[in-house]
Amino acid sequence: MLDRELLAKILSRTTSDSDAEALVALKKANAIVKRDAGTWYDVLGVGSSHSRPAVTVPPPRRAVRPPFAPGSIEGEVADFMKDAFSEAMYNFGRGLNGRSQGRKR
To answer: Does residue 63 form part of some domain?
Structure first.
């Protein structure tokens, strides 16, 4: 049986200035409703859980780029940029490490 007093107390914590506390309260309230009442539709007494439309969210589509043809200029440029970027990031990281150890404030 749903403890409405407990549910109200938990829901009052959703107004907290702390986003983490508010989110925990929402998750706890959802868990209590699922365990004791089934759905929020059942708790609120509006419609039935079967009358609401099923919402399906398709997974995000990731653009898949076909690989460049071997020996094509596009493939050569892509490989060069990947190598150059990797080297630049490596050198940038080395520079940060060198400065942070030798620098005194």
So the answer is: no
Q: Domain range for residue 38? A: 4-44
Q: Which of 43, 11, 40 is nearest to 28 (CA)?
A: 11
The string of pLDDT tens digits covering residues 67-97 is 777 778 888 888 888 888 888 887 777 776 6
Q: Do residue 105 and residue 72 come from a single domain?
A: yes
Q: What pTM, to 2 d.p., does this model score? A: 0.45
Find, among 18, 20, 39, the residue nearest to 29 by Cα: 39
Q: In sequence order, which residues have a C-beta less than 8 Å from that of residue 37 and are 6 or more positions away?
A: 2, 43
Q: 73-80 long-range contacts, Cβ below 8 Å, gap at least 24?
A: none
Name the domain count of the chain. Answer: 2
